[in-house]
Amino acid sequence: MENVRERLLKALFDTRAIRVCPAGEPFWYTSGKIGPYYINTHFLYGGEEKANSLLKVIDGVKDNKEECTGVLREIVMKNYNEDDIYRNTIDILVDAIKDTIPDDDYDYISGGERRDWFFSIAAADLLQKPHITIFKDLDAYVFQNGRSERLISVNGARVLHIADLITSASSYERAWIPAIRNAGGVMKHSFVIIDRMQGGSELLEKHGVKSNALVCIDDGVFREACRKNYINKGQLEMVKKYIENPDMFMKEFFKNNPDFIEKALNSGDEKTASRARLCIEKGYCNIS
């Protein structure tokens, strides 16, 4: 029988929630840097098409803050009952929370706009906890017993925040933690599907938040993926070099592939070209 890690890893690659580029063809990131993999955790909702469909729904309802959570709860729980991959992911998350955090050690579950809601709303429903829906402007609403009310005060209550992904935890520091603090609450725990191991958990610890994750992105994840034939050996070696030193990986790649920038600039794809221009402006490559 497959263990929990194997099941989740299979789901991540089956849905392309983790996507590794072919050897020698790194992705362009919005920062103007390059790297060998993308992570779209929300694809665990049942695939890219389903995930993008839910994002469209979110964009259509998030301005009606009082109704937002109720609409999304109905949709995600319907998908939970119908989609094996999503149900498996949520069940793994809920079981991990039960095994890690005592039920009496948190009073609310929170999730931040937008992708956290893919996981936080369903988990709150199954764990029978009120859900605090936090918006990017730090406004927040509590959903409980089918009703949603603006968050005013929680009188020192303890909160577990559920997120799809943690990188540097900038969203936590900018919005999620302050929103709970402004209501007199304490964010005591965080649980994410994926931790990119880029300093986020350490930052949360400084804010007094205990960080937990189902999957931590290190070379062990990709070695296992290679053993399972989700990626090949060439992709594995590329990812290992990147994880060891992302900036050195980038510099060496540009040195060994001097025409990569030029091809991006002339690709005809404005998104790719703009990221290549940003790369030059930021000095990530030695091209002027």
TrEMBL record:
Family annotation (InterPro entries): PRTase-like (IPR029057)
SUPFAM superfamilies linked: PRTase-like
Gene3D superfamilies xref list: 3.40.50.2020
Taxonomy, superkingdom: Bacteria
Protein name: Orotate phosphoribosyltransferase
